[in-house]
């Protein structure tokens, strides 16, 4: 019985694998206009809990900087058109990242899901 309780507590407290945050992810998203887009995102560590982020989609490359706190990843970036933007992703137990983003002054939001490669 003690082992069963211990196993249940460990399962509840298990944090997402931090090692999965660095590397390349497959990207599926929906833009603020509803258009679906795909590509890949690369996370390169540049400091403790900080990553350089590079999105590669059919329309080009976007660069950003991410900061992780707990299971959340906040990303600031500048779009190819020079608009600033922010993204907030949540690290899931299976290593995927799900989140939303906005850029420019419109207030519109897009959605993304990133799958580790």
TrEMBL record:
Name the record gives this protein: Uncharacterized protein
Disordered: annotated segments: 96-117
Signal peptide: 1-19
Alphabetically ordered keywords of this record: Signal
Record bears the keyword Signal: yes
């Amino acid at each position: 019985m003690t082992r069963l309780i211990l196993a249940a507590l460990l399962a509840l407290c298990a944090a997402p694998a931090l090692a999965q945050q660095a590397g390349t992810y497959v990207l599926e998203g929906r833009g603020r206009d509803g258009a679906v887009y795909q590509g890949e995102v690369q996370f390169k560590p540049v400091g403790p809990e900080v990553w350089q982020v590079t999105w590669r989609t059919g329309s080009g490359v976007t660069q950003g900087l991410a900061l992780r706190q707990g299971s959340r990843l906040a990303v600031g970036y500048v779009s190819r058109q020079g608009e600033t933007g922010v993204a907030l992703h949540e690290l899931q137990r299976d290593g995927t990242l799900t989140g939303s983003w906005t850029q420019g002054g419109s207030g519109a939001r897009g959605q993304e899901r990133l799958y580790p490669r």
